[in-house]
C-alpha cells in the first residue's frame, strides 16, 4: 500500500536521532511514491499544527513531542527480543474507568494494542506479566502512549480455571505465527532479488515491504512461549535485519545529498506505515 503524505513524513522523521530534514528531501522522497509536492506541503502544515512535527530555525523538520512515544516504539523493532522476560503466571489488567470518546478512545486503544493487551471484558483488558520492567514500567509506557490517567493498571493472580482459559485464548497464536512465517519468506525472497532492482525501485520496495515487517514486529504482543511460541517472530526479526542493511544502502545516497543523518535509518525511514499507521 502506498503511504499517504502524512505517513511518509512521519516515517522519514521518526528515525532522525539528532538531525532534521529539509522540505526538499521530503518532496523528493514523496515523488518516489507519486505524492505531489503540494500534497506533501499541506500534510506538513497539518502535522505541524498538531504538534506531531516541529520546525527549527533553518526551516528543517523533526519529529514533534506528540509523535515521539509511538515513533520510539516503531524504531525500536530491532530490540524487541530484549523487551520480554520469563513468565511467572501473573497477568496485568487495565480497567477502563470511563468509556471515553473521540481522541481519548483512539489513544487508549492504541496504547493497549501497542503493548499487546486484549479485552477480557468490555472494560477490562489483560496481558501476561512478562515484559521487562514489570508493572511499574508498563504503567509509564501506557501513559506515554495515551492511556487516560484515570484507568487502573494492576496485577492479577490466581484466576479461576474458566477465566484463565479465556484469557489464554484471547490471542490467535496460530494466525500470528503464520503471518510471521509468510512475511519472513517474502523478505527472504526480496533479499535474494534486491540487487536486480534499479535504485529508486529498491528504495520504494524496501520502504513498503520493510514497513509491513516492522509493523508486524512492533505489534507482536510478545506472549510467553507457553501461549504463543516466539520462534517465528525471532526468524522474522533475523530476516528483517538482513533486509534492513540492503534498504539502508539504497536510501543512503538521497539522505546524504540533503545532509540528513541516517545512522539507524533509513531502514526505518523507508518503512512506510510503521510509526505513522501505528499512531492511528
pLDDT < 50 stretches: 265-277
Strand content: 5-15%
Q: Helices and strands, in N-to-C order?
A: HHHEEHEHEEHEHHHHH
Give the total of beta strands: 6
Provide a short characterization of the protein structure.
The chain is α+β, with helices and mostly antiparallel strands. The chain has helices at residues 5-13, 23-32, 37-49, 68-75, 102-114, 134-145, 161-168, 173-193, 199-218, 231-257, 275-278; strands at 53-55, 61-63, 91-95, 118-121, 124-128, 152-156.
Overview of the molecule:
The chain has 280 residues and is an alpha+beta fold. It has 2 domains: 1-83 and 172-280, no CATH class; 90-156, Alpha-Beta Plaits (2-Layer Sandwich), CATH 3.30.70. 52% of the residues lie in helices and 9% in strands. It has a 4-stranded antiparallel β-sheet with strand order 4-5-3-6, with no helix packed on it. The protein has a two-stranded antiparallel ribbon with strand order 1-2. Helix 8 packs across helix 10 (231-257) and helix 9 (199-218) packs across helix 10 (231-257). The radius of gyration is 20 Å and the shape is globular. Residues 265-277 have low confidence and may be disordered.
Amino acid at each position: 500500500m502506498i503511504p499517504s503524505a502524512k505517513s511518509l513524513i512521519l516515517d522519514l522523521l521518526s528515525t532522525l536521532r539528532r538531525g532534521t530534514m529539509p522540505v526538499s528531501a521530503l518532496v523528493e522522497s514523496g515523488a518516489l511514491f507519486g505524492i505531489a509536492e503540494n500534497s506533501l506541503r499541506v500534510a506538513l502544515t497539518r502535522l505541524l499544527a498538531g504538534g506531531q512535527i516541529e520546525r527549527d530555525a533553518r526551516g528543517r523538520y523533526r519529529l514533534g513531542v506528540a509523535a515521539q512515544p509511538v515513533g520510539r516504539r516503531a524504531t525500536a523493532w530491532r530490540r524487541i527480543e530484549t523487551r520480554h522476560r520469563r513468565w511467572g503466571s501473573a497477568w496485568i489488567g487495565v480497567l477502563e474507568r470511563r468509556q471515553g470518546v473521540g481522541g481519548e478512545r483512539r489513544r487508549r486503544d492504541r496504547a493497549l494494542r501497542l503493548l499487546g493487551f486484549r479485552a477480557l471484558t468490555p472494560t477490562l483488558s489483560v496481558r501476561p506479566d512478562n515484559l521487562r520492567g514489570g508493572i511499574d514500567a508498563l504503567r509509564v509506557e501506557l501513559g506515554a502512549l495515551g492511556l487516560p490517567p484515570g484507568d487502573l493498571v494492576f496485577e492479577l493472580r490466581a484466576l479461576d480455571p474458566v477465566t484463565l482459559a479465556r484469557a489464554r485464548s484471547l490471542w490467535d497464536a496460530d494466525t500470528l505465527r503464520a503471518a510471521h512465517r509468510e512475511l519472513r519468506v517474502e523478505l527472504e525472497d526480496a533479499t535474494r532479488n534486491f540487487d536486480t532492482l534499479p535504485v529508486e525501485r529498491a528504495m520504494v520496495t524496501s520502504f513498503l515491504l520493510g514497513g509491513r515487517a516492522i509493523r508486524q514486529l512492533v505489534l507482536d504482543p510478545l506472549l510467553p512461549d507457553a501461549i504463543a511460541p516466539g520462534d517465528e517472530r525471532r526468524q522474522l526479526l533475523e530476516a528483517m535485519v538482513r533486509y534492513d542493511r540492503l534498504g539502508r544502502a539504497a536510501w543512503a545516497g538521497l539522505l546524504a545529498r540533503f545532509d540528513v543523518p541516517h545512522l539507524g535509518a533509513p531502514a526505518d525511514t523507508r518503512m512506510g506505515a510503521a510509526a505513522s499507521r501505528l499512531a492511528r
